[in-house]
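Sequence in, structure out. Go.
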Amino acid sequence: MKIYIVSHYWNNGESYEDYRSYEDHFHFSTLKKAMTFFQDKVTSDYEGRYILISKELNTQEEEELAKSAWVKCLSTWEL
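Output:
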């Protein structure tokens, strides 16, 4: 059985000891639902990167299906 995961990776835009990274993962049962969600996210304003993968359950098989460009995250000092 395959599931589809859209992952969002971003950071706080800081450097050195103030740097923090974050991630969210959204799971979908169909490619259509995952691709719709992915397209909605990458065509709107976003920071960081979105990645869409398919994952075969009960195995370690994983395939990257789409990856957005990295959009620089703004520091709270830059806002």
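Check: The chain has one domain: 2-67. The helical segments are 31-42.
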